[in-house]
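Morning run. Coffee first, then this:
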Amino acid sequence: MDDLVLVGRVARAHGNRGQVIVNLDTDFPDERFRVGAVVMVGPSATARAIREVRFHQGRPIIAFEGIETMNEAEALAGAELKVPAADAGRLPEDTYYHYELIGCEVRDRSGKAIGSVTGVEGTMEMSRLVIAGSHGEVLIPLVAEICTEIDVPGRRIVVSPPDGLLELNEPGGRP
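And here it is:
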C-alpha cells in the first residue's frame, strides 16, 4: 500500500484500558487524531477507528475500536499509523509532505549531484532533508534560502548550501 502516508507510531500502551501513546509524524495532530478518524495500523494496514483521544505533553493518547485490554495495546507497540494519501489534504504553497520529497535527487546550483533524499526529519518549522550522499549521510535544512528549487513531479531539489555544510559529514570534515 504505497498510497499511505505515515502520521504516527505507537510508542507504548498506556494504562489498562487498551489505550496507546503515539509519537507524531504529522504537523496536523488535531486533524489526524480525532474521535471517529480511521487510521491504518501496522504492517497489515488494519483499519482502526479512534474511539477516544486526548493529548498529553503534545502527544495523543488514543483508544482504538476493537482494542480493549492492556495486552492488546502492548501488541501495537512500534506499529506505524497511516492514512490514505488522498485523505491527507492539500498543503499551503511551498509546503510538502515528507513522502513527496523522499527519493528526490538533490543537486547544487552548478548541477553537481549531492545524493538522494532518504528521509525528512523534524516538524514543519524545523525540517531537515536526510540525503544519502557519496560520502555518507548529509543533513540539509529544508528552508527556502538553501533549498532554492523543489520540483516534486520532476523528483529534483536544487540547493545552495552555505560554505562548509556539505563537508560536515565527509571523512576528516569539520567537527
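Residues 98-169 form a domain with the SH3 type barrels. fold (CATH 2.30.30.240). Good start to the day.
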